[in-house]
Amino acid sequence: MREFTVELAIDLAQFERLYRGQASTVLARDVHGTRVSFPALSLRPFLQHTGIHGTFIIRVDGDNRLVEIRRAGD
Question: What is the pLDDT of residues 13-29, one digit of tens each?
Answer without folding.
Answer: 888 887 777 778 899 99
